[in-house]
Amino acid sequence: MQMAKRLEAMQVEKYKGLTRQSGKRSVWKGIVREDHEALVIPYSWKKPKKIFVNSMSDLFHEKVSDAFILSVWRVMRETPHHNYQILTKRPDRMAEIVREQVRDVLPNVWLVAARADGLRRVPAAIRFISFEPLIGSVGTMDLRDIHWAIVGGESGSAARPIREEWIDEIHSQCLKQRTAFFFKQWGTWGKDNKRRSKKANGREYRGRVWNEMPAVQQLNQ
Question: Where are the domains of the chain?
Answer without folding.
Answer: 1-31, 37-209
